[in-house]
Write a structure and sequence with these properties.
The protein has 142 residues and is an alpha+beta fold. The protein contains two helices and ten strands. Helix content is 17%, strand content 42%. Strand 2 and strand 3 form a beta hairpin.
Amino acid sequence: MAMPGLRPFHLAIPVADLVAARAFYGELLECPEGRSAAQWVDFDFFGHQLVCHQVEHHDSVAGRNPVDGESIPVPHFGVVLTRAQWDAAAARFRSVGHRFVVAPTVRFEDTPGEQATFFVADPSGNVLEFKAFADLDQLFAR
């Protein structure tokens, strides 16, 4: 269902260390910090509200599913960027030697929904996917 005037989502995730979360989301991804307390911090994650809650125990990956020849970790979350933003994000991760969970690639090439994608994990093991569509109108293409 398409929503006119798309609104930001809110996502709360568990992290083991707020200092490491601030370094990853605030410094590496350049997400501005919002409100915070001793056990949580808000980030402006590309216009969406991401809240990192410090917890003692958390399993970051429940399983994996095959998608276009790759083993994709579940759960994961992410953002759809322009191709220029996607290229810059991939370059930023490469420049600091951050390991890719799934290396930058183009998925579903020459088919509806063609997309550039890569996956990384934050310091607590939460997996993020960064996408850029050849044609954003095909975001939900079958």
